[in-house]
């Protein structure tokens, strides 16, 4: 348990250092790097490191299916 906490802490620490050393970029959807780090830490605490790949794969499949449905709809509109 302590190893996981130490690993999470190191990841957050590195992300903060990278954020502070780089120039500020435009925020995507009004969410900056500190907010993303907090969200990532909360997700890691809730789901754990073992479930994150499964969650990521599920989100990726959902986005892929959404894009596929949009492109199929465009193709149908072109045919009509």
Explain what this protein looks like in three dimensions.
The protein is mainly alpha-helical. It folds into two domains: 49 residues, no CATH class; 31 residues. It is built from three helices and no strands. Helix 1 runs antiparallel to helix 2. The longest helix is centred in the last third of the chain and has 28 residues. It is elongated.
Which features would summarize this protein structure in a list?
single chain; 80 residues; mainly alpha; 0% strand; elongated
Summarize the structure.
The protein has 80 residues and is mainly α.
Radius of gyration equals: 18 Å
> Which residue ranges are poorly predicted, with pLDDT under 50 across at least 5 consecutive positions?
none
Strand content: under 5%
Number of helices: 3
Give the total of domains. Answer: 2
End-to-end gap: 59 Å
* Main beta-sheet annotation: none
* Strand runs, count: 0
N-to-C order of helices and strands: HHH
Task: Give the class from helix and strand content and strand pairing.
Answer: mainly alpha
Helix content: over 70%
In round numbers, the mean pLDDT is 79
Q: Any idea what the shape is?
A: elongated
Summarize the SSE layout with pairings:
Elements: H1 2-21, H2 33-47, H3 52-79
């Amino acid at each position: 348990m302590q190893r996981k906490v130490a690993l999470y802490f190191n990841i957050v620490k590195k992300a903060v250092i990278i954020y502070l050393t780089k120039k500020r970029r435009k925020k995507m959807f009004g969410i900056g790097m500190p907010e993303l780090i907090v969200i990532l830490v909360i997700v890691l605490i809730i789901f754990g490191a073992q479930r994150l790949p499964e969650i990521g794969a599920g989100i990726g499949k959902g986005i892929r299916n959404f894009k596929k449905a949009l492109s199929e709809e465009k193709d149908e509109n072109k045919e009509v």
